[in-house]
Amino acid sequence: MTNWKDFLNYLILLKKQIKTVLFILLITNLIAYSQQIDTVSANQSLSDSGFVMQKSPMGAMLRSAVLPGWGQFYNESYWKIPIIWGVSAWFIYAWIDRNDNYKIYKDLYNESLLETSNGNSTYKFWRDNYRDDRDLFAVYLGLTYFLNLIDAYVDAHLFDFDVGFNNYTQEPELRIKIGL
Questions:
Q1: Mind listing the pLDDT tens digit for each residue in 45-81?
Q2: Interior/surface letters 126-164, b for 16+ CB within 10 angstroms, e for the rest
Q3: Is the pLDDT of residue 176 over 70?
Q4: Residue ranges in the chain assigned as alpha helix (H)
């Protein structure tokens, strides 16, 4: 029962961290784009520049922040979603498993401390080993979440990137659209 309580506490802390990251991203987004709005004249429309991005990088990143894989769905990179979910699920499973083993060996070590003055060093070794592994899997899960955000952002930027075939030279060419 304590296993689920610890997991729920972890999810509550993760939810608070996600809210903090989203708040920071929102504030930096507002600061960055508020300066650009002043430079655009009132009578100029966005379609006058000739190129409008089809996907919003910030929108893709915020979608992935809310639900990992949603930004990839928005960017039409459907094959990445099961990878993100699978890797995240594996890290969550490994974290729960290491946490359970850590608690078992922590209890065994505490019981051995009551029986002898210095405790069983084998229990202490395994307790420390499982705690370290558990902490590493938490870091890996955080990195997976962060890389999910970066992937959604970059993929939205590159959504309009095209590698086409030049009929004149009969060679492939890069077609990059630049919007000013």
A1: 444 455 567 888 899 999 999 999 999 999 888 999 9
A2: bbeebbebbeebbebbeebbeebbebbbebbeebeeeee
A3: no
A4: 2-39, 57-66, 70-74, 80-115, 121-157
Contacts of 178 (CB under 8 A, 6+ apart): 51
**Pick from 97, 109, 166: nearest CA to 134:** 97
Q: How far apart are CA 93 and CA 134, in angstroms?
A: 10
Helix (H, G, I), strand (E, B) or coil at 173: strand
In one letter, which amino acid is 111? E
For tokens 């699978």, name the residue: 86
- DSSP states of 129-145 as a string? HHHHHHHHHHHHHHHHH
